[in-house]
Amino acid sequence: MANEQTKTGSGRLAGKAALITGASSGIGRAAALLFAKEGANVALLDVNEEGLAIVKQEAEAFGVTCATAVTDISSEEAIEAAYKVALDKLGKLDIIYANAGINGSMAPIELMRLEDWSKTININLNGTFLTVKHAIPALKEKGGSILITSSINGNRVFSNIGFSAYSSTKAAQVAFTQMAALELANYRIRVNAICPGSIKTNIDKSTKRSPYLEEVQIPVNFPEGDQPLEKGPGSPEQVAQLALFLGSDDSHHITGTTVYIDGAESLLHG
Fold first, then answer.
1. Of the four, 18, 34, 158, 247, which is 20 to 30 A from 237 by CA?
2. Domain segments of the chain as ranges
């Protein structure tokens, strides 16, 4: 392992090192840049090599060290290799943000193909498991913070017909968060889940919509505007601010907790 290269500058995360999956865009990118701005060295993982290179350059503008690894989080071999890159470059890890995921296939249960179901499970749930599993050796000596991006879908909201695979993974992530929080408490590793509502990201690009969805839709007429607080979707930067709090020492007694960040959207949809 390389000598620790953590900066000693100012910021809420000064002296810390963070690994973030799904870091090339959306919530992952916003968290990477905010963490770097707050003084953390960062390891960025994503399948998008070009996007990673751009975010790396943006993060390094804050004067921190940045490692990148093109990583399919559903592959244990790829995750192991990515952690090696991160530790070789940063010297340690304090914060793990398991953020990567896909919407996957949006289809009636009767017509959903097993391969589409399995792809969503493999990336969203198996990927989260592998990210957390391989974080433990790096965190267990001194403790740390693990964050998992779940969703209001599968936890508070069940009205998005066709999202059975996605919602199942998001519900499972919350259960896994709570199991991991208790198991890892003896190592002073905190584990918390973030459940965003509608956020302005490009995750819809990973959505496959079945032409048969209309056959199983249940008509619902919401009051004008279905996102009460800000009359529209939240931003990746707002979620990153929550991740900053949960990753920092400001939340040192919070673990096993699910935090909803949706502007009251789920209270209306639920």
1. 158
2. 17-269
Q: Where are the alpha helices (DSSP H) in 48-184?
A: 49-60, 76-90, 114-120, 127-133, 136-139, 164-184
| Residue 205 CB coordination number (10 Å) | 9
Catalytic site residue from 97, 166, 212, 260: 166
Terminal C-alpha separation, the chain: 48
CATH class of 17-269: alpha beta
Residue 83 annotated to the active site: no
| Residue 209 to residue 161: CA distance in whole angstroms | 11
Q: Are 198 and 26 in contact (CB under 8 A)?
A: no
* Phi, psi (degrees; rounded to nearest 5) at 12: -65, -20
- Residue 245, pLDDT above cutoff 90: yes
How far apart are alpha carbons 159 and 161 in whole angstroms? 6
Percentage of residues in the chain with pLDDT exceeding 90?
77
Give me 261's structure tokens: 């960040």
Q: Is the pTM of this model over 0.85?
A: yes
Q: How far apart are CA 36 and CA 17, in angstroms?
A: 9
Alpha-carbon distance 180 to 200, whole Å? 29
